[in-house]
Amino acid sequence: MDELMLDGNAAAALLRDVFGAEMTTAIGTCDGCGSVDAVGAVHVFRGAGTVLRCAHCDAMLMTIVTSETRMWVDLRGLRTLELDA
Amino acid sequence: MARAAVLGRLNWRAADVVGVVPETARVKTIQFDVPDWPGHLPGQHVDVRLTAEDGYQAQRSYSIASAPDGTRVELTVERLDDGEVSPYLTDELRTGDQIELRGPVGGYFVWEPERGGPLLLVAGGSGVVPLMAMLRRRAAAGSDVPAVLLFSSRAWDDVIYRDELERLNANGLLVVHTLTRAQPDGWTGYARRVDREMLAEVAPEDAQVFVCGPTPFVEAVASALVELGHEPARIKTERFGATGGRDG
Questions:
Q1: What percent of chain B is predicted at pLDDT more than 90?
Q2: Which domain holds residue B93?
Q3: Is residue B27 domain-shared with residue B68, that is, in the same domain?
């Protein structure tokens, strides 16, 4: 267990900045193992950026790095995202 | 809610301190009035931003402790000795001061009376805060949804919201304390960390579960619940990380 691990809830404000919507209730599919989970239930690690990992296979789902003026988002580990219209 | 209020960046709002209430030696509740507060759901959190005179800013996330109540928002903050933000919030803020908040955020770790139950809430230390918002909402709504709060604290004097929990402990709510480090004379309750046996004794069947606390606490509780046959999809967790508080 990594004691620094947080839940997707902890990234709610950051994700809201990126997507402009409440994302912790969005449903994501892991491109690594195909698991389907609410974003609020995935694992979150914070360092120089914020990394979201699959709670089942630990694959990287999303990486977000922010500066004062820009945000970089890597979504390659997420096959799909489903959210309220 | 209007779509315009849902989409878009979260704006920082000025929040006026209208009261500071000590809860334990290390924990205080700070009461804010936030003009134009859009309302919140029990379990949601806010970002708090402090700006120093030289322009340096520090930002942290705190769970909302209060049930939805107009423009009133309460945060309960544990003082972390090496923290950057919490000592300021607990030691320096006075009625009449102003800080910045943005939120509410998070729609996942949320419960409202309409979602029914039975509810199992498991708290480690200040992890009780978002769960208290749920219990306050439950009480304010006159809900009789069966609920159990299993609350792990170090000692009796460290129990946050102790008196209020005693008052709420009725109408289908059962509050169970465990004291892990020290117990008062004559204590007959649990006196160990939350474990599988304890959860088996208190957990309602087929409960919606919310677990909040330090990461190792949440990890142990969630694993034990899954071993007991609780459906993982019905167990929602909120971890603090290693510090046992919201990183400062």
A1: 83
A2: 2-105
A3: yes
Closest CA of chain B from A76, distance in Å: 23
Which tokens go with B33? 């009035």
A4, A16, A25 member nearest B108 (Cβ):
A25
What is the C-alpha to C-alpha distance for residues B176 and B9, in angstroms, rounded to an integer? 40
- Rounded mean pLDDT, A47-64: 95
pTM of the predicted model, to two decimals?
A: 0.93
CB A39 to CB B108 under 8 A? yes
CB-closest option in A4, A7, A13 to B238: A7
Residues B35 and B128 in one domain: no
Residues B143 and B118 sit within 8 Å (Cβ to Cβ): no
Per-residue pLDDT of B78-120, as tens digits, reads: 998 888 889 999 999 999 999 999 999 999 999 999 999 899 9
CA distance B136 to B132: 6
Q: Domain for residue B246, yes or no?
A: no
User: Touching check for B242 and chain A: CB below 8 Å?
Assistant: yes
Give chain B's domain count.
2
